[in-house]
Design a protein that fits this description.
Blueprint: H1 2-7, H2 9-30, H3 38-55, H4 60-82, H5 87-107, H6 109-112, H7 127-146, H8 148-158, H9 160-165, H10 170-195, H11 206-219, H12 225-240, H13 248-262, H14 267-286
Helix pairs in contact: 2-7, 2-10, 2-11, 2-12, 3-4, 3-5, 3-10, 4-10, 7-8, 8-10, 11-12, 11-13
Length: 288
């Protein structure tokens, strides 16, 4: 059993790292924020962790904390101008942010290695470290979902006008969503740096942006388990169907369209709705 687990340790760690990044996207979407900044903030966290690990020999745990801190600061700074935007304007502005970060990573060659990449990063985090970081992120997301923060996020997402009429300060809650999302994206980027031996700016471009968005839409945008299920499906699918591995982006795009048309609530949310509806019918049937 332990030998079989060791054989799949790398794949399992990849699922958990992708799930951490998906939870960053999940939090902003749950609050009604159409931010696509996760890839850019993950890039900042990854390079911060890599630079600390290589040039100052910082231990993996401290590098991850620093990556999370960089992500938190980036999320807060980004929220100052963008929390007042809505919809497509927020999406375009955050896309521009990602492009700016990638350009900085490309041209700040003395610091990031530029197009040649930041290489010789020691592997500082193995599966137990990834699992522990994922568990912390999951605990935070569950705590947020069950608190007044989660209820405020849900109200804002469902109807912002009603939220304002109830006295909810929408801009402030959106800023909190940006900050929490940035913290988790920075941690996800730090995990990537501490597990990969090299970083290049392309690691955080459009493919990563599409991947985290697809994972949340596929898994579900309301249930906490949604991003984990989405990350597991999209990470394992190319492994199960190896001929599709070279077409990962095409598969992600096709799944995104398919789910949006057939299962608009995602896998977990659709199953939860179905089970709830079935339980209500059974209750009505047995009622005298």
């Amino acid at each position: 059993m332990s030998g079989m687990l060791a054989g799949y340790a790398g794949l399992l760690a990849l699922v958990l790292v992708n799930a951490v990044l998906a939870y960053s996207q999940y939090l902003v979407l749950r609050a009604g924020v159409f931010s696509l900044a996760t890839a850019g903030i993950a890039s900042l966290g990854a390079y911060a962790a890599a630079i600390l690990a290589v040039r100052w020999q910082v231990p993996g745990a401290l590098a991850l904390i620093a990556a999370g801190g960089v992500g938190l600061i980036a999320g807060v700074v980004l929220s100052l101008p963008l929390a007042r935007l809505r919809g497509v304007f927020q999406a375009i502005a955050t896309l521009a942010f990602v492009q700016i970060v990638l350009s900085l990573a490309l041209y700040a060659e003395p610091l990031t290695g530029g197009a040649m990449g930041f290489n010789a990063i020691p592997r500082l985090v193995d599966l137990p470290g990834v699992a522990a970081t994922f568990a912390i992120v999951l605990f935070v997301v569950i705590a947020v979902s069950r608190s007044r923060i989660g209820r405020a996020f849900d109200t804002i997402r469902q109807d912002e006008t009603v939220a304002v009429s109830l006295g909810i300060a929408v801009v402030e809650w959106h800023r909190l969503a940006f900050a929490l999302s940035g913290l988790i994206a920075g941690l996800g980027g730090g995990l990537m740096a501490c597990r990969n031996y090299s970083l290049v700016p392309e690691d955080f471009g459009f493919p990563l942006l599409m991947a985290v968005l697809t994972q949340v839409v596929l898994g579900g945008r309301i249930a906490v388990a949604g991003p984990l299920v989405g990350a597991a499906v999209l990470t394992l699918l190319p492994e199960v169907a190896r001929p599709l591995a070279d077409y990962r982006m095409a598969v992600n795009g096709a799944l995104l369209v398919l789910v949006a048309v057939c299962w608009p609530h995602g896998i977990v949310d659709t199953v939860a709705f179905h089970l709830r509806d079935r339980a209500l019918r059974v209750r009505e049937a047995v009622r005298p």
